[in-house]
């Protein structure tokens, strides 16, 4: 099968090249993001492979279909960037990678907590200028602190285990039952209001759906404990960025670790160091000394990349053989999330 990989980078080439021989696909690595404008680049290919910041809307899908593409594979667990109803209308199956490495993302969330708490980013910058002062670098013990995890899927469960290992009290909120996690770790399931009110650190591990869009808004932030630390390694639009800026300015939020940003498309994954940043909201977030922003890299481990490549190519091989697609997503999945 001929596969066009959009928004591809050096690490994609390495990870896919390492496993492609076992599947027999022919891969074309394309640097541009997949949009309606770039979709014609897929001409001559049977499949396209898309990443999280592509725009796989109805227009793009129609152009892919016209170019002869027969299936869309996502190098991600999330699929909020795809018009699944349009894909179904055009007869284009959409497959994803539902699990690549929950450890990678959960560990990155904890790394953001540690960096913010112990001011690692500020200390590292200081000593490079031979400033070895410790003023302003006081942190706190994680042991005994209350951590609130919103979402207890695979990533949330791994995060719960890590924080429990630090000796934290772990609160969890999820629509799904958490009995097994309670039995394993002694976590406490609570409603969102309780989690906001009690948690010293809040980490988001839910997908972006119509129901979770801007779930962290002015009201949610105001309901949180003063001095809370907020971590987001899920999707950027879970947080209303302007509301977060206001809470940071007032001091109500003491620190924020963001691996994702709601307007990251066209910014993250690119070197813009020679340009003027046009996003005023992101530029403001980057001015706070108590904010750490990473460029959607929580997934970026060797193990996760290998799993993404293997799962994606296996799905395409199954499609080529006419076998059931274990990781196919449908428009009904969005409707279920909206309910």
Element layout with pairings:
Layout: E1 2-5, H1 10-19, E2 26-29, E3 47-50, H2 58-66, E4 71-74, H3 84-90, E5 94-95, H4 102-117, H5 120-128, E6 146-150, H6 154-165, E7 169-173, H7 179-185, E8 188-189, H8 192-198, E9 201-204, H9 218-223, E10 228-232, H10 241-250, E11 253-258, H11 280-285, E12 291-293, H12 302-320, E13 328-329, H13 331-338
Parallel strand pairs: 1-2, 1-3, 3-4, 4-5, 6-7, 6-9, 7-8, 9-10, 10-11, 11-12
Antiparallel strand pairs: 5-13
Helix pairs in contact: 1-12, 2-3, 4-6
Question: What do you see in this structure?
Answer:
The protein is of the alpha/beta class and 339 residues long. It has 2 domains: 2-100 and 301-338, NAD(P)-binding Rossmann-like Domain (Rossmann fold); 102-293, Rossmann fold (3-Layer(aba) Sandwich). The chain contains 13 helices and 13 strands. It has a 7-stranded parallel β-sheet, sandwiched between helices. Helix 7 (179-185) links the parallel strand 7 and strand 8. Helix 1 (10-19) crosses helix 12 (302-320) and helix 2 runs parallel beside helix 3. The longest helix has 19 residues, at 302-320. Residues 335-339 have low confidence and may be disordered.
- Following the backbone from N to C, one meets helices and strands in this order, namely EHEEHEHEHHEHEHEHEHEHEHEHEH
Strand percentage lies at 5-15%
Superfamily (CATH H level) name of the largest domain = NAD(P)-binding Rossmann-like Domain
Which bin fits the share of residues in helices? 25-40%
Number of strands: 13
Structure classification: alpha/beta
For the sheet with most strands, the description reads: 7 strands, parallel
Poorly predicted runs: 335-339
- Average pLDDT works out at 95
CATH class of the largest domain: Alpha Beta
Q: What count of structural domains?
A: 2
CATH architecture of the largest domain: 3-Layer(aba) Sandwich
Distance between the termini: 37 Å
- By DSSP (H or I, 4+ residues per run), the number of helices equals 13
Strand order of the largest sheet: 8-7-6-9-10-11-12
The general outline is globular
C-alpha-based Rg, rounded: 21 Å
Examine the coordinates and then state which fold CATH places here, giving the name of the CATH topology of the largest domain: Rossmann fold
């Amino acid at each position: 099968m001929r596969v066009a990989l959009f928004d591809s980078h050096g690490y994609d080439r390495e990870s896919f090249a390492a496993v492609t021989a076992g599947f027999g696909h022919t891969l074309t690595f394309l640097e541009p993001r997949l949009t309606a404008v770039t979709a014609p680049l897929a001409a001559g290919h049977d499949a396209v492979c898309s990443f999280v910041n592509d725009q796989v809307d109805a227009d793009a899908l129609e152009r892919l279909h016209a170019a002869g593409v027969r299936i869309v594979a996502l190098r991600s667990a999330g699929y909020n960037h795809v018009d699944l109803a349009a894909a179904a209308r055009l007869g284009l199956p959409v497959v994803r990678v539902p699990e690549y490495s929950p450890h990678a993302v959960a560990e990155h969330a904890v790394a953001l907590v540690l960096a913010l708490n112990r001011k690692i980013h500020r200390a590292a910058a200081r000593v490079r200028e031979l400033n070895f002062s410790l003023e302003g670098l006081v942190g706190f013990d994680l042991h005994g602190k209350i951590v609130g995890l919103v979402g207890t899927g695979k990533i949330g469960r791994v995060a719960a285990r890590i924080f429990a290992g630090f000796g934290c009290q772990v609160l969890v909120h999820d629509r799904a039952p958490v009995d097994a996690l309670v039995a394993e770790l002694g976590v406490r399931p609570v409603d969102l209001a309780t989690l906001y009110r009690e948690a010293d650190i809040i980490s988001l591990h839910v997908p972006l759906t119509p129901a979770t869009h801007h779930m962290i808004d002015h009201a949610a932030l105001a309901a949180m404990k003063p001095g809370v630390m907020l971590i987001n390694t899920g999707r950027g639009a879970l947080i209303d960025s302007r509301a977060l800026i206001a809470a940071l300015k007032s001091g109500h939020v003491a620190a924020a670790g963001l691996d994702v940003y709601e307007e990251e498309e066209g910014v993250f994954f690119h070197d813009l160091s020679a340009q003027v940043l046009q996003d005023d909201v992101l530029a403001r977030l980057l001015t706070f000394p108590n904010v750490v922003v990473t460029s959607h890299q929580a997934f970026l481990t060797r193990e996760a990349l290998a799993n993404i490549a293997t799962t994606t190519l296996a799905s395409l091989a199954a499609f080529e053989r006419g076998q059931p697609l274990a990781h196919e997503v449908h428009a009904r999945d969005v409707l279920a999330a909206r309910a």
